[in-house]
Amino acid sequence: MEPLSLHFLHEATGARFMDVGGREAVAGYGDGEGEYRAAREAVALHDASYREILRITGEDRASFLHGMVTQEVKNLPVGSAAYAAMVNAKGAMVADARILKREADILLDLEPGTGAKVRDFLEKYLISEDAELHDATGEQALLRLLGPRTADVLSAALGAPHAPLAQHATRTASLAGQPVCLVGSTAVEPHGVDVWVPRAGLEPVWRALTEAGAAHGLKPLGFETLELLRVEAGVPRYGKDMVDTTIPLEANLASAISYNKGCYIGQEVIARATFRGHMNRKLTGLLLGDADVAPGTELRRGEKKVGWLTSVVRSPAKGQRVALGYVHRDSLDAGTELTLAEGPATAKVAPLPFTS
Fold first, then answer.
1. Residue 261: what pLDDT?
2. pLDDT in tens, 35-74
3. Which of 60, 141, 179, 356 could be stapled to 130 by a disulfide with Cβ–Cβ 3.0 to 4.6 Å?
4. CB 272 within 8 A of CB 89
């Protein structure tokens, strides 16, 4: 397990650690309820430096990546970010990525444990293009701010007013003497901002944000509480809710797909599925009451298997256990009651996000 760069700082605060995709992450700081409340009502800071970063250089980097992902890249303005999926020729997912297009290169923000897989996938199709792939995980890292006081904390840390950023909007700045890129990350929490930091500058930036957040109720946020927030927001995670048999449209990733960009690997399958107007199954929300069941549990309607659970949490917003899961299109209507495995416990189909 690859340790966190800031392991010593987290350990000093009583952090508990876990493995995520072969990389170390903070599971929690001993007060999950306080972490959750800070993210909902004040501000929370998450060390996301366990994520992997791939860098693409060369004159053809944009055109090459454009043909490899579901999202627009060639016409993405320099300094902009976007979310994309990578799919194989059958339209099934290889991974997902957030793309950050910079003046001299393109960065891919990837789930931990997927960096080598993505690099192998891209290199397979890299033939004559002037493009090179580099593992930049040791060079770049991410910190994530969530909560309604995020802008206040960034204003204090930057020493200048910080206006909220929309999803994928970017802004460069200097923070604690480090060049950072601020990227709107509002899918999980509507005020979220990811701070891209040179890995060598992680400690001063973490300390500066912590100090600036002291007056605003900032708490450090562990991975387990981040997962709770993610599920409540209805956001799928690759490796958990999406795997190498998932078609992006099944996972509600329409926003990751450009329908005007032309050809890319797997484009024909995605286009056919879009033209058909429906998928046989879709990711949806499920209300579980007090049922204590694990991801992978089958969902049945009568004697027929109609789906399965992927992520399960106890939701403060709903006051019960909730889940993300795939359900056959004939059973997707909100309020449809399904049996969990052999029963007698049941699940009720619910719209996403759970917080709406």
1. 86
2. 999 999 999 999 999 999 999 999 999 999 999 999 999 9
3. 60
4. no
Q: What value does the mean pLDDT take over residues 120-147?
A: 97
Burial class (CB in 10 A: 0-12, 13-18, 19+), 98: buried
Sheet holding 81-87, edge to edge: 81-87, 93-101, 106-110, 52-57, 132-135
Asked if residue 161 has a cis previous peptide bond (ω within 30° of 0), the answer is no
Residue type, 71: Q
Half-sphere exposure of 348 (CA within 13 A, CB side): 10
Q: Domains (ranges, CATH) in the chain?
A: 7-51+138-232 (3.30.1360.120), 52-135 (3.30.70.1400), 280-356 (2.40.30.110)
Q: In Å, how far are 173, 175, 184, 201 from 159, measured between CA atoms?
A: 11, 9, 19, 18
Which residues does 304 contact at the CB level (< 8 Å), separation at least 6? none
What is the distance between the terminal CA atoms of the chain, rounded to a whole angstrom? 37
